[in-house]
Amino acid sequence: MLETAGEIVSQDSDTEQAYLAFICKRLKLNFRKLSVEERKWLKKIAEKSDLLKNPKPQRGRR
């Protein structure tokens, strides 16, 4: 799993795209073949995951 993450991060400098590509790789989907609409839906679904949320809450931060 760490090898896969290293591959993805080295390919994509954008963190969001790297996360989505990692998810696709784990699901054995070809990220490059997804349409723009499919990528939007994948992003919406991924936003609901607790794993992709910021672990440090920003609320009330000065």
Q: Can you describe this structure?
A:
This protein is mainly α and 62 residues long. Helices cover 53% and strands 0% of the residues. It contains 3 helices and no strands. It is elongated and about 40 Å long.
Helices and strands in order:
Layout: H1 2-11, H2 15-26, H3 36-46
Helix pairs in contact: 1-2
Features of this protein?
elongated, 53% helix
Helix percent band = 40-55%
Separation of termini? 36 Å
**How many strands appear in the DSSP assignment?**
0
Radius of gyration: 13 Å
Structural class of the helix and strand makeup? mainly alpha
Largest sheet geometry: none
| Overall shape | elongated
β-sheet strand percentage: under 5%
Q: Return the string of H and E elements.
A: HHH
Mean pLDDT: 75
Task: Give the low-confidence spans.
Answer: none
Number of helices: 3
Describe what is shown at a glance:
With 62 residues, this protein is mostly helical. Helices cover 53% and strands 0% of the residues. Helix 1 packs across helix 2 (15-26).
